[in-house]
Write a structure and sequence with these properties.
Layout (H helix, E strand, L loop, with lengths): L16 E2 L4 E2 L15 H35 L5 H17 L1 H8 L1 H20 L4 H29 L2 H32 L2 H5 L2 H15 L14 H19 L4 H23 L16 H30 L4 H22 L5 H28 L2 H28 L3 H32 L8 H18 L1 H16 L5
Antiparallel strand pairs: 1-2
Helix pairs in contact: 1-5, 1-6, 1-8, 2-5, 2-9, 2-15, 3-4, 3-15, 4-5, 4-8, 5-15, 6-12, 6-14, 9-10, 9-15, 10-15, 11-12, 11-13, 11-14, 11-15, 11-16, 11-17, 12-14, 13-14, 13-16, 13-17, 14-15, 15-16
Length: 495
């Protein structure tokens, strides 16, 4: 195996690289045991990261269930789409700032602040007398959640050896599956029996426990005072781009207007990346989004897989209700199949180790996602509900097999000095992919007549086109995954 460049810049526990020779070690490291996550010295850390995922997951499902009632009570129908838009924009922007915030203040202090911000936003939204103030609360919530998720991801390789990282991703996938099934039911019951405001407040006890665990599990870090100026211009461009993409998906009727706005958003993101990579202290790790290294390609894959998969979150439950005539409960249950399959896939691959094997899992998972989207297209075209269920199973399984492995490869193929940046970027890129996918595929569906032709035939035609477009958009991450495998075998791992 040829030597790997830049290995001397940082090695860490269970690294697949030899720090002295700079050579990739082709060994089959033993996989960690699930029981190691609950050993006394790791239990607090495991619970901390699982609760970080729970805050995000339960909030998403609780709010999506309770928000329609809130909108009706506050007469804010015109703002319903903005409750998600402002949350996503704030989450992505705050998440992008996480590496510099962690370096300047330390992970422990950042998580305390982020939890407080999230709790303040939750209270503001739950107690708001108007829809405008709900939007303010959702923005504050998004900022707290984005920073919490990014810092939590950055802590994974710091708190756990490499052999247990896949187990942590598997455990977090189980949390998401529980939230997908239990969150809507819990929020629905509380909304009906008490109020939508009480449903919003369910998050607060989770946050309190999370803060207590952070105090126990997250170590003090030496603060780096030389972290440069706050990257306001870069984060502002990111926020502007994500807001533009979200607006294009929900607020513009003319296709040409939406396409112009999306093009402008892409230019803003390109400008932000160029400014960042030329800065003395950057947000992005070196070589981010390159096409000649495993780390660079992994970022593209992390962005494009959620982008393609977002078509199910946007349209599938709607399709089951309006094409097959089922109510919200059945449609929601079919929608939740994806989360269950994702958990099953993630738990299965967590029992295997080795960078080469993980890259094969990424390629295999991406292949299954492409096939699942094709099955979804055929299901809507032929009006076969059984194929819709199969589509959800395949996409969820593919994402579960690919996602944890992809994230771990991204973490482990960056030098130690770049690991915080790479790890913190993962949930931010995932959210950006979902936001971009919702906007782009929503635009495709509207161009096909989704908004203008509500008849069953028109709806079926537009959804078939949207799912087919998603299948095409899933091909780039598959190509990236296959190229990462080839680069790994050739030894060109690091940028």
């Amino acid at each position: 195996m040829p030597p790997v460049s830049a290995v001397s810049e940082g090695c860490y526990r269970d690294s697949p690289f030899d720090c002295r020779s700079g050579v990739l070690i082709m060994t089959s490291a033993s996989s960690g045991r699930w029981s190691e996550l609950v050993e006394p010295e790791r239990l607090a850390a495991s619970l901390t990261l699982m609760l970080a995922a729970a805050i995000f997951a339960f909030n998403a499902f609780l709010v999506s269930t309770a928000m329609p009632t809130a909108v009706g009570e506050l007469h804010g129908e015109a703002y319903i789409s903005w409750t998600l838009t402002v949350y996503i924009v704030a989450s992505i922007t705050a998440g992008a700032s996480a590496p510099l915030m962690k370096a300047r203040f330390g992970a422990r202090r950042c998580l305390f602040w982020a939890s407080g911000v999230f709790a303040a936003g939750t209270l503001a939204a739950a107690l708001s007398p108007s829809m405008e103030l709900v939007l303010v609360g959702r923005t504050v919530q998004g900022a707290g959640e984005g920073l919490t998720a990014a810092i939590a991801f950055a802590l994974i390789p710091q708190l756990f050896p490499s052999r247990l990282v896949a187990k942590i991703f598997g455990a977090e996938a189980i949390v998401w599956a529980v939230a997908a099934f239990g969150g809507p039911v819990l929020a629905g019951v509380i909304t009906e029996l008490v109020s939508w405001r009480a449903a919003f407040l369910i998050n607060l006890p989770i946050v309190v426990v999370f803060v207590a665990l952070v105090h126990v599990a997250v170590p003090h870090e030496e603060r780096k005072l030389d972290t440069g100026l706050f990257p306001g211009i870069r984060l502002g461009l990111v926020a502007l781009a994500m807001m533009a993409i979200s607006v294009a998906g929900v607020a513009l009727d003319a296709p040409w207007q939406a396409m112009l706005v999306v093009a402008g958003a892409v230019l803003c993101l390109i400008a932000a990346v160029r400014i960042d990579l030329s800065s003395r202290i950057s947000i992005l790790p070196r070589g981010a989004f390159g096409l000649t290294s495993v780390p660079g390609l992994s970022f593209w894959t992390i962005f494009f897989l959620p982008l393609a998969q977002s078509v199910t979150g946007v349209f599938l439950v709607y399709a089951v209700q309006h094409l097959w005539g089922y109510g919200p409960a059945v449609a929601g249950g079919i929608g939740a199949i994806l989360a269950l399959a994702w958990s099953g896939g993630a738990v299965t691959v967590a029992n295997y180790d080795g960078t080469g094997r993980r890259l094969r899992f990424v390629a295999a998972g991406a292949s299954v996602v492409v096939a699942g989207l094709v099955v979804g297209t055929v299901a809507i075209l032929l009006h076969l509900l059984a194929l819709v269920v199969l589509c959800q199973l395949m996409i969820g399984l593919g994402m579960g097999v690919a996602w944890g492995s992809l994230c771990q490869v991204t973490m482990e193929t960056h030098p130690e000095g770049e690991r915080d940046k790479a790890s913190a970027l993962l949930p931010t890129l995932q959210s950006a992919g979902y936001a971009a996918g919702s906007a782009v595929l929503g635009l495709v569906a509207n161009l096909a007549g989704f908004a203008s032709d509500p008849t069953p035939e028109g709806l079926r035609r537009s959804l078939v086109i949207a799912f087919a477009a998603a299948a095409l958009l899933a091909l780039p991450p598959l190509a990236f995954a296959l190229r990462m495998g080839r680069l790994y075998r050739a030894g060109a791992v690091r940028s």
